[in-house]
Amino acid sequence: MKNILVPTDFSENSVRALKYAQMLFDSEECNFYILYVGTLLDTKNDAETMQYGDGDSENTKRKLADLVKDTRAHSTEANHFFFSLHEYGFFIPTIKKHLDEQNIDLIVMGTKGASGIKEKVIGTNTGDVITKVQCNTLVVPEQVELSKPREIAFPTDLNIFYSLKMLRPMIEMVQLGKSKFRIMHALQAGDHLNEEQKNNKEYLLDFMKETFPESHSFHTITNKKVKSAIQCFVESREIDMMFMVAKNLNFIQQILFDSIVEQISFHTKIPFYVIHE
Which Pfam family is an annotated match for this chain, by its short name (predicted)? Predict the structure, then answer.
C-alpha cells in the first residue's frame, strides 16, 4: 500500500496534480490523503484571539469534502482510497505531522506554471517542502499531460554517490510507465571528470545495466551551462518527467531555485520527482 499526501488549495493546478498522481499509480493500491492547510492570525499573541486567516472554516471544510467526494466519484480504480485532512496552522509543521501520522511515502504538489516571465520556477510552499521535508516529492505543473512518462531524464553532476534508496523511486517509475531512463551530464569545454565523478558514473551505469539493460542511456552535453543543457536535452528527447536528488543541494539550487521562467520553460510541462535519502 502506497500512502500519498496531496496538499490542496482548491486551485486548478492542485487538482491537476491529484489527477496526475491517480493516473500514475493506477495499477497500485494507494491511500490518497488530500490535505488543506489554512493559516491562523494571532494579532494579540493570545491563543484565545486566534482567527482564521483565509476565510470561513466551514466553507473550506465543505470545499474539501466536495473535492474528495468528486474525486472518489470519478475514480475508476478500485484500489484507490481517498481521505480528507483539514487543519489550520503553519504549512511545513503540518506537512511533517501528517508524514508521521499517515506514514506517507510520497508528497504530490501542483505548480501554477508560467503566468509571468519573471516568476520563479517553483513557489514558496513547494520549495519549502523540497528543502525542509524529508520525503520524496513529485512536483506537477498545471500543463502536464495525463499520461505516464515515456522518457525520463536524470540530470546529474555526478558529485554524489547514489544509494539504492535513491535509485528505487527511479526503478519504480521506469517499471510503471515502461519508460526509457536517460542520464544526462553537462560538461564545460576543457573540463574532465574527477576520480569521484568517474566512480559515481561507473556505479550508476553498472546498476542501470543490471536493472534496465535495454531501457537506459547516458548522455554528455558539452559547451552549455547546466540550465541550457537540460533545456536542450528535454526538448530534443521529448522528456516527460525529470528526477533530481535533494541531497545534491548545489545542483538542485541551480535548476529550481535560482531560475526564473524566462530562463527555462521545461518546468511548465514536465513533473519533477525530487528524491530524499
Answer: Usp
> Do 2-141 and 151-239 fold alike per CATH?
yes
C-alpha cell at 12: 486548478
Q: What is the CATH number of domain 151-239?
A: 3.40.50.620
Size of the chain, expressed as the number of residues it contains: 277
> Is 137 within 8 Å of 130 (Cβ atoms)?
yes
| Whole-prediction pTM | 0.88
Q: Please give the grid coordinates belonging to residue 127.
A: 520549495
Domain ranges of the chain: 2-141, 151-239
Q: Which three cell numbers stand for residue 190?
A: 576543457
Distance CA 70, CA 10 (A): 12
Alpha helix positions (H), the chain: 12-24, 57-74, 91-101, 124-132, 164-177, 195-211, 226-237, 249-252
Residue partners of 186: CB distance under 8 A and separation at least 6: 155, 157, 220, 221, 222, 224, 225, 226, 229, 230
Longest CA–CA span in the chain (Å) reads 65
Rounded CA separation 171/89 (Å): 36
Task: Classify domain 2-141 by CATH number.
Answer: 3.40.50.620
43-82 pLDDT tens trace: 444 444 445 555 568 899 999 999 999 999 999 999 999 9
Task: Give the sheet arrangement for strand 30-38, strand by strand.
Answer: 80-88, 30-38, 2-7, 106-111, 137-141, 272-275, 241-245, 151-155, 180-187, 216-222
